């Protein structure tokens, strides 16, 4: 498959949105096909996968990628446009003040250190108290509310039932950053060896696994892959 205007337009859409659900991505691709492709062809999920793979061949050398992920808090699939550099947070310096970027780092830190990787919405706002100092004026709570809404739209965080979660973009884009800075608290799924934030825990041992990984595993075996006891937690 040659690299066409379809690929260029879809890459631009991913870059603009940051995070797209699978259905949103497919709807966008259908619109792009209507404009640039054969309007009699309706792209399928297979076409979507092919288009993303072709784009990734082009942009990987620029430390960029469109990643596909299953996001367990909402049980939805997403395509996430990410920068693969060591400190992607620094790429936002032209858009946010030093205090606002520090607030972002504090949110990442506290979400990582919390037991279930969630924070109450009021806790998130109160973290603005940590943004003053070193010549920085503290981020106000009203500004923090705006930032949380903006960062949620970009896919960095998710506000769900008065709790803040890592969003799909943060999980993908900041995996290296979090593993480097919080290696002692970051865990990996023992089935896929990918960093895990939200999953399902065994009833008889501390092991936590991606739900999708566990579903595939339990099609063949019925025991916990860590403690080897019968898996009893409902999926």
TrEMBL record:
It is found in: Chromosome; Nucleus. PROSITE patterns: ZF_DAG_PE_2, ZF_RING_2. It catalyses: S-ubiquitinyl-[E2 ubiquitin-conjugating enzyme]-L-cysteine + [acceptor protein]-L-lysine = [E2 ubiquitin-conjugating enzyme]-L-cysteine + N(6)-ubiquitinyl-[acceptor protein]-L-lysine. Keywords: Chromosome, DNA damage, DNA recombination, DNA repair, Metal-binding, Nucleus, Transferase, Ubl conjugation, Ubl conjugation pathway, Zinc, Zinc-finger. Its EC number is 2.3.2.27. Residues 174-224 form the Phorbol-ester/DAG-type domain. SUPFAM superfamilies: RING/U-box. It is an enzyme of class 2 (transferase). Its main location: nucleus. Residues 189-228 form the RING-type domain. It comes from the Eukaryota. The keyword Transmembrane does not apply. Gene3D superfamilies: 3.90.1150.220, Winged helix-like DNA-binding domain superfamily/Winged helix DNA-binding domain (1.10.10.10), Zinc/RING finger domain, C3HC4 (zinc finger) (3.30.40.10). One of its GO terms (cellular component) is nucleus. The keyword Lyase does not apply. One of its GO terms (molecular function) is zinc ion binding. It holds the Pfam family SMC_Nse1. GO terms for biological process: double-strand break repair via homologous recombination. Component of the Smc5-Smc6 complex. Belongs to the NSE1 family. This is Non-structural maintenance of chromosomes element 1 homolog. The lineage of its organism: Eukaryota, Metazoa, Ecdysozoa, Arthropoda, Hexapoda.
